[in-house]
Design goal:
Radius of gyration: 15 Å
Strand order of the largest sheet: 1-4-3-2
Organism: Siphonobacter curvatus
CATH superfamily: 2,3-Dihydroxybiphenyl 1,2-Dioxygenase, domain 1
GO molecular function: dioxygenase activity
Strand content: 25-35%
Shape: globular
Domain Glyoxalase/Bleomycin resistance-like N-terminal: 5-43
CATH architecture: Roll
Protein name: Glyoxalase/bleomycin resistance/extradiol dioxygenase family protein
Keywords: Dioxygenase, Oxidoreductase
Largest sheet: 4 strands, mixed
Helix content: 10-25%
Distance between the termini: 29 Å
Number of domains: 1
Number of helices: 3
Structural class: alpha/beta
Order of helices and strands: EHEEEHEHEEE
Length: 131
Amino acid sequence: MATQIFVNLPVKALEPSVTFFTQLGYSFNPEYTDENATCMVISDTIYVMLLVEPFFQTFTKKSVADAKQTAEVIVSLSLESRAAVDDIIQKALGAGATTPMPAQDMGFMYQHGFQDPDGHLWEFFYMQPNA
């Protein structure tokens, strides 16, 4: 069995988060969805659990970071082309995201990111295969 990753992110409200990420083209696994959480499917091995803050708090004794004020993590995902990077950024901006940094072109790698409505940082990149 391949290793899977489940990134757990706290959100203020589930429905607006689901609406936002649906506009980016992501789907959700209904088997892992209730009023407290949902499982966003990135790929066959990558999932993001969006957990309402009170439920997220049950998994840790630490306080939940305010992602609009503090960077707690940058979720970085590869895409198949520069155009795909630009496309998802445009979808995110259209759905209410902001871009905290301009796109970066390093020749062998192109990257750009956004801050989702809850403040979480997402970065998408394309790296040339022979690089």
